[in-house]
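User: Could you check the structure of this?
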Amino acid sequence: MCLAKAYFNKSVDNPILQDIARMRLGDDRVELETLFGEEKVISGRVVEIDFSTSKILLSKSAKADKA
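Assistant: Sure, the predicted structure tokens are below.
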């Protein structure tokens, strides 16, 4: 089984989170949950999902950069 890894758009070398089994999208946030129950909420949006490589590319919201 190959679960997804999430990356910020410009840094595909270092994943934000690995073994992602569930993703929920909000207005300006992405909620990620691993197979093991670890959760992470990212202020931003999905840029691209590549199912063939199991990569999720995210971009930070402008609000997150100002915080």
